[in-house]
Structures are given as structure tokens and as C-alpha cells.
Amino acid sequence: MKRLGSVGLMLGVLTLGGSFGCADEKEEKAKEHRVKGTNFLADKNYAEAVKEYEESLKIDPNQEKVWEKKAFAHMQAGQTEEAAQAALKLLDYAKTPAEKADVYRNVAAMYAKSGPLDKAKQYFEECLKINPKDTDALGWIAEVHSQRGGARSMSAPAVPAELELALKTYDQVIAINPDLPNPYLNKRVVMFKYIEHEKALQQAAEQEAIEAATPPKPEKGKKAVVDPQAAERVAAAKASAAAHAKRVEELTAQANEATKQFGEATKRAKAAQASGATK
After folding, report:
1. Residue 262 lies in a domain
2. Is residue 71 part of a domain?
């Protein structure tokens, strides 16, 4: 009986030893693909790097750094969706709400860079669910609305609803931290686009008033046609022009105030930086 017990113990040890050997083999194989992937990444061969990282992760999916490198390789290859999916795997390793917010922010930044902007906004909003006072996320959401509103392009048409949302969101950032200079600067960019739009509408309304007040030339041999609604159309066009002119004045005043606040916030930031450097 003692002998059987001894044999059983030995078999148990052999079995246990065999499982370690298998684990070591898998680990080595995962490492082999991981190293190949990193070498391809260094050579900027992103497609091959992705393949090797995928093979490594098939063997051992619990590799935080490999998911991170895979996301980077996808992004460099212009594969934003794949990069985002790999980056989202890092949520499994986030230990705190702040770390989770960092993951969402990085994914949002990928979409902010390459599009679509809807996806960027979606993941920045995930950051806000964790911390409603996340000024970085709010600032980026404002930027999304700014771009949609045409503020970042001279040739893009203005979209007032998006410009309004951009201004509202920048104001939220400023309310949380009035010492940040950039929100004032970005807010000015939106306002200038809005002013340009309102001026165009004002000019169009003024032209409409002129045209409404000018009767058409009569055809030869016929009496001039009198438009009974001409006066009403002129009045409506002039009222519209006045409303747009008023809006231009309001936005110009707000833009000037934002310029002033930007200067003051910049001074405060420099003073704080200098104070920190002397400590």
C-alpha cells in the first residue's frame, strides 16, 4: 500500500510538472509573437505588427501592454475602429474611475482625429458620466460642435445650432475653471464664424428690402405692375436686417469680452507657472 501511495504521488508530481511545461510553452509562444510584433512596430510595418500582436493575444489575451500596442499599430495604419476596439480592452485593467476615464478619453481622441465626430462625442460623454466636471472632455465636446458648426473652416457653411452648442459647452468649461485660457480662445473662433454668418444674413435681408422696394420695369406698351405687398415685404426685410445687425453687435461684444478674459487667464496661468518654478 505504501508503494502504491508513493507511485500515486509520483504520478501526481509528473502530471503537475507536465502542466507547467505546457504553460511555459504557451508563454514562450505568446512572447515570440509579441516580440515580433514590437519589431515590426519599430520598423513601422503596422500591418504585420497587428498580425503578430493578434497571435500573441490569441494565446494569452491578458496582456495589457499588447492591447495598447495593438491599438497604436491600428491607429498608425489608419484603422480607427480597430484601434478603438483594442484600446477599449484596457478598461479591463483600469482600477479607478479616473483610469477608466483616461481610456474613454484616448478612444474619443482617436475618433476626434480621424472621425467620425459622433463617435468622439460618444466617448467623451462616457468621461463625463464618470466626472461631470471633466474640463478636457467638455472642451473636446465643444470642439466637436465647433467643427460641425463650420467654425474651423473658412469655406464651410455655418450651422447656427451647432455653434450655439459649442458656445454653451465652452461656457460650461469656463464656469468650472475660469483660469483656463484656451476655452476663451476657442470660444472666440466660434463667435467669429457666427458673426460672419449673421453679417451675411443681414446683407441678404438688406438686399431683399432694396429689391422689394424697387418695382419691376414695365413691359413696353404696358402699365407698370404694382405689388400690393411690396411695402410689407420691405418692412419685413428691414426688420430681419435689423435683428441680424443686433445679433452681430451682441456677438462682437461677447467676442471682445472673451479676448479680454483670454488675456487675463493667460496672465494668471503664467503667474502660476512662475510661482511653481520658484518653489
Report:
1. yes
2. no
Angle in degrees, CA 51, 56, 59, rounded to 5: 130
- Structurally, how many domains does the chain consist of? 1
Q: Does any domain span residue 4?
A: no
**H and E: helices and strands count for the chain:** 10, 0
- 45 half-sphere exposure, CB direction, 13 A CA radius: 11
pTM: 0.79
The domain in which residue 208 lies consists of: 133-212+231-272
Tell me if 96 is assigned to some domain: no
The grid coordinates of residue 184 equal 476663451
Contacts of 80 (CB under 8 A, 6+ apart): 74, 110, 111, 113, 114, 115
Evaluate the CA torsion angle 133, 136, 140, 145 in order and state its sign: positive
Tens place of pLDDT per residue across the chain (279 aa): 433 333 232 223 333 334 445 568 889 999 999 999 999 999 999 999 999 999 999 999 999 999 999 999 999 999 999 999 999 999 999 999 999 999 999 999 999 999 999 999 999 999 999 999 999 999 999 999 999 999 999 999 999 999 999 999 999 999 999 999 999 999 999 999 999 999 999 999 999 999 888 877 777 766 666 677 888 999 999 999 999 999 999 999 999 999 999 999 999 989 888 877 655
Distance of CA 121 to the CA centre of its chain: 6
Say which residues have a Cβ less than 8 Å from residue 100's Cβ, sequence separation at least 6: 91, 94, 130
Report the CATH number that the domain containing residue 144 is assigned in CATH.
1.25.40
Single-letter code of the amino acid located at 230:
A
Cis, bond preceding 216 (omega within 30 deg of 0): no
> In which residue are the cell numbers 504521488 written?
9
